[in-house]
Design brief:
452 residues; alpha/beta; Aldehyde Dehydrogenase, Chain A, domain 1; Aldehyde Dehydrogenase, Chain A, domain 2; 2 domains; six-stranded mixed β-sheet; 20 strands; globular
């Protein structure tokens, strides 16, 4: 298992793959630790989360540089990722006990209540694009609820995975309350089948989600899946054009364009289509790429394989009639770089409309009116996030709530996760919710207690 710097394609470090016996031993140890961890108080867990936030901030510079080295995002975004993890620790430290407070319900019983009890080991199978945040998004609420955790991270961010294990120990969490498994994805079935693993959460592709859901379903184990997205941003005729362009551009290019909830398809009512296209292209032309440790807007994609896959989607769309307005060519310099790219003249059936383009490629689509724009937005197998831009906020709110088919719908703002709000998708973007009061209840036993 190797970590390869996508900026220069040099091997950062090699890691030994764990044997089956090592994995079994770790699972046994994490399960044993759960037996005592589940009995700890909310106050104790909250104290450790506060210490975890402090440890993350203390080590932020080092962790951020590791993120940038292993997957290529610009350093400022890596630093922001660590800070978001710290903020979420503080949020659940403050609110976790309240979210899981016993609820008393009036019935004919002398006592009837609902209690929230931890399940056991929660296994997280996580991707490389937000190597700290994606992991902490399930670790923090799961640990606050009294579960213990295993992490199978993407192989190209193995040092990030070990850093997470390190910082958990530094914060004071018990040995073996959280462990990393250094094994390839093809060996995950055996881990899911282990009876001491109680539940599984995955962030990744739709194909990976189907495979994990199938295996976990065989074992009757709870799963939460946060999968791919092709988020549509609908720009109506009365939108604030400057706000729409700046917001859409930021969303499309965040994390080098490699985010499930990044804007992918910009669906613009035809009366302002030309103005939007011109303004968006002018702004996109100003974006620079290069060494993510320097003052640039974009670093490399996470690997040359992912870059080449994206380029094939661009070429296939062009072959089917799309027009490349900007970019669309693999740079000559060493590294997994891809330039900011704009495709127009798009319609359903093309990869740039139907598929998730995981990189800095914007698809701009014209719609004759609001109704067609919404129809095109919903014409997708995905349903993770969506956004609507209009000066009529009430109109936008109604469209977001009742017409756009996605787990998160934003008005005049880019789609993003927030520890205070539930996060997740519908359709091929998965099921279940992370974050907020909803996320912490995904991996607990919602138990009825009834006394005659």
């Amino acid at each position: 298992m190797k970590s390869i710097n996508p900026s220069n394609l040099e091997v950062i470090q090699e890691f030994d793959e764990m044997s089956e016996s090592q994995v079994d031993q770790i699972i046994d140890q994490v399960h044993h630790t759960w037996q005592s961890w589940k009995l700890t108080s909310f106050d104790h867990r909250a104290k450790l989360l506060i210490q975890l936030a402090a440890a993350l901030r203390k080590n932020k510079d080092r962790y951020a540089k590791t993120i940038t080295a292993e997957m290529g995002k610009v350093l400022s975004e890596s630093e922001a990722e660590i800070e978001k993890c710290a903020v979420t620790c503080e949020y659940y430290a403050e609110n976790g006990e309240k979210f899981l407070a016993t609820e008393h319900i009036s019935t004919e019983a002398s006592v009837s209540r609902v209690a929230y009890e931890p399940l056991g080991i929660v296994l997280g199978i996580m991707p490389w694009n937000f190597p700290f945040w994606q992991a902490f998004r399930y670790i923090i609420p799961s640990m606050m609820a009294g579960n213990t955790c295993l992490l199978k991270h993407a192989s190209n961010v193995s040092q990030c995975a070990l850093d997470i294990e390190e910082v958990m120990l530094e914060a004071g969490f018990p040995v073996d309350s959280f462990r990393t498994l250094l094994i390839p994805g093809k060996k995950m079935d055996r881990v899911i089948e282990n009876p001491k693993v109680a539940a599984v959460t995955l962030t990744g592709s739709t194909e990976a989600g189907r495979a994990v859901a199938s295996k976990a379903g065989e074992q009757l184990k709870k799963t939460v899946l946060e999968l791919g997205g092709s988020d549509p941003y609908v720009i109506l005729e009365d939108a604030d054009l400057d706000l729409a362009v700046s917001t859409c551009l930021k969303s499309r290019l965040i994390n080098n364009g490699q985010s499930c909830i990044a804007a992918k398809r910009f669906i613009v009512v035809e009366s302002i289509y030309e103005d939007f296209k011109r303004t968006f292209m002018e702004a996109m032309k100003q974006k620079t790429y290069g060494d993510p440790l320097s003052e640039v807007d974009l670093g490399p994609m996470a690997s040359t394989a992912l870059r080449d896959e994206l380029h094939e989607q661009v070429l296939s769309s062009i072959n089917e009639g799309a027009y490349c307005l900007l970019g669309g060519k693999i740079p000559k310099e060493k590294g997994a770089f891809y330039p900011p790219t704009i495709l127009v003249n798009l319609h359903p059936g093309m990869p740039a409309f139907d598929e998730e383009l995981f990189g800095p490629v914007a698809s701009i689509i014209s719609a004759k009116d609001e109704e067609e724009a919404i129809d095109l937005a919903n014409q997708s197998c995905f349903g993770l996030g969506a956004a609507i831009f209009t000066r009529d906020v009430k109109r936008g709110e109604a469209i977001a709530q009742t017409k756009l088919q996605a787990g998160s719908c934003f008005v005049n703002e880019l789609v993003h996760s927030d520890p205070r709000l539930p996060f997740g998708g519908i359709k091929d973007s998965g099921y279940g919710r992370e974050l907020g009061s909803f996320g912490i209840k995904e991996f607990v036993n919602t138990k009825t207690v009834f006394v005659k």
